[in-house]
Amino acid sequence: MWGIGKPRSKLGKWLDQNGLEQQDLAKNADVSKNTVTKACNDKDYIPRQDVMKKILKAIRKVDPNLKMSDFWDM
User: Fold this and answer.
1) Residue 2: its pLDDT value, please?
2) Which pLDDT band holds residue 4 (cuts at 50, 70, 90)?
3) pTM of the model
4) DSSP, residue by residue, 20-67
């Protein structure tokens, strides 16, 4: 089971609920695994705008209705 006992951000919780892995998101979004790990585990982390767009583009392949504000408070 994913996400047990780990502090997770909204992005991390979404990945867990959809049964997706961080490494797959990193590959599909063409960002580093470290960036995805930080985005999934640190609730206060807000990635740069270009990184955010890459992550969101990869996420929208699963759910096209999601927005940046679903994951990051801006």
Assistant:
1) 57
2) low
3) 0.87
4) --HHHHHHHHT--HHHHHHHHH-TT----HHHHHHHHHHHTTT-TT--
